[in-house]
Design a protein that fits this description.
The chain has about 325 residues and is an all-alpha fold.
C-alpha cells in the first residue's frame, strides 16, 4: 500500500476514532450534539460532560497510544529487535514501584505522579549506567539489565500489593492495568509527543542506517554511540510521559509498529507518523470500549490491550 494513501486513511481513522470516543459513554451523544457542545452551544449537561470528562480523556488516550507506539519504534531501531517494547527496559517497573509506594503511604495524586516519575528516572539511570558500563556501549547488556530490573521491580510490586488494604489494592491494580480516568499532565504529554515525534521523523534517515547494524552504520559515518544514547533517552522520556498519563498500558509499543510493517512500510520517515496515528487511534478505541462495555463499571484499558497483545506476540513468536 502507498505510504501516502495509508497516511490519509489513518488520519481519517483518527478523526473517526476521536469522534467515536466523544459520542459514547454513560450519556450517549449524537454527532450533532457533540459538535454543538464543542462550540459551547446546546444542552448544558452535554457541554459539561464533553469538556470536563470526555475530551480530556480522549485526548489523553490518543497521546498515550502515540507515545507508546513511538517509543516502540525507537526501541526496535535501537535494539535491532522487532519484539522490543517500551516496558522491556525496566522503566515501567521503576515507575510502578514509585507510584504504588506513594499510594500505600496515602499520598496525594500529585505526589504519586512525582513518585512514579522518580522511580522511572532511577530505573533509567540504573539500566543506562550498567548497560553502558565503563563506557562500553553494549546493547545486549542494556537489554539484559532491563529484563533483570523488571523482574526485581515486579517482586517489589507484589510485596506492595500484599501490604496494601481495601481500596488501596483496587487503585493499585487499576494503575497497573492502565487507567485514563484522571489524565494528569496532558499538555506535557502532547508536547513530548510532538517534539520527539518531529525530531525522530526529521532524523529518520539515521534510524534506517542504524537498523542495518552498528558496524555498517559506523562504516557509513554515523556516530553510533551518540545515536544509541539519544534513542534510549528519547524512548525512556516517551515511556515516562505515557506512564504519567495513563499508568502501565502494555503491548501498544509492540503491536503498532508491527501492524504498520505488515502493510509493507519499512522506512522510518513513514513508519514513525503512521505508528503514532495508529497507536493513538487504537488506544482511543480500547479506552472507549473499556468505559462503555460494562457501564457504569469502568474496566482498565490495559485489559483490552493485553487481550489483543498476548495472542499477537505469540503469533509473532510462532511465525519468526
Amino acid at each position: 500500500m502507498s505510504p501516502r494513501l495509508l497516511l490519509t486513511l489513518l488520519l481519517c481513522a483518527s478523526a473517526l476514532g476521536l469522534g467515536f470516543g466523544l459520542m459514547n459513554g454513560s450519556l450517549p451523544l449524537s454527532p450533532g450534539e457533540v459538535w454543538s457542545a464543542l462550540l459551547g452551544r446546546g444542552d448544558s449537561a452535554a457541554i459539561e460532560v464533553l469538556w470536563q470528562l470526555r475530551l480530556p480523556r480522549v485526548l489523553a488516550a490518543f497521546a498515550c497510544g502515540g507515545l507508546l507506539a513511538l517509543s516502540g519504534v525507537l526501541l526496535q531501531a535501537l535494539l535491532r529487535n522487532s519484539l522490543a517494547d517500551p516496558y522491556i527496559l525496566g522503566i515501567s517497573g521503576g515507575a510502578a514501584v514509585g507510584a504504588l509506594a506513594a499510594m500505600l503511604l496515602g499520598a496525594s495524586l500529585a505526589a504519586m505522579q512525582l513518585a512514579s516519575f522518580g522511580g522511572a528516572l532511577l530505573a533509567i539511570l540504573a539500566v543506562f549506567g550498567l548497560g553502558f558500563l565503563h563506557g562500553e556501549r553494549n546493547i545486549y547488556r542494556l537489554l539484559l539489565t532491563g529484563v533483570v530490573l523488571s523482574a526485581g521491580c515486579g517482586a517489589v510490586v507484589s510485596l506492595l500489593l500484599t501490604l496494601a488494604q481495601g481500596e488501596q489494592v483496587k487503585g493499585m491494580l487499576f494503575w497497573l492495568m492502565g487507567d485514563l480516568s484522571h489524565p494528569e499532565g496532558l499538555l506535557f504529554a502532547w508536547v513530548v509527543l510532538l517534539v520527539l515525534g518531529l525530531c525522530a521523523t526529521v532524523f529518520s534517515g539515521g534510524l534506517d542506517v542504524l537498523a542495518g547494524g552498528p558496524d555498517k552504520a559506523a562504516a557509513l559515518g554515523l556516530a553510533v554511540g551518540r545515536w544509541q544514547m539519544a534513542l534510549y533517552f528519547a524512548a525512556a522520556a516517551l515511556t515516562v510521559a505515557a506512564l504519567q498519563l495513563g499508568g502501565a498500558i502494555g503491548f501498544v509499543g509492540l503491536m503498532m509498529p508491527h501492524a504498520v510493517r505488515l502493510l509493507g512500510i519499512a522506512a522510518h520517515r513513514w513508519l514513525i507518523p503512521l505508528s503514532v496515528l495508529l497507536g493513538g487511534s487504537f488506544l482511543v478505541l480500547a479506552d472507549t470500549l473499556a468505559r462503555t462495555l460494562w457501564s457504569p463499571q469502568q474496566l482498565p484499558v490495559g485489559v483490552f490491550t493485553a487481550l489483543l497483545g498476548v495472542p499477537f506476540l505469540l503469533w509473532l513468536l510462532g511465525k519468526r
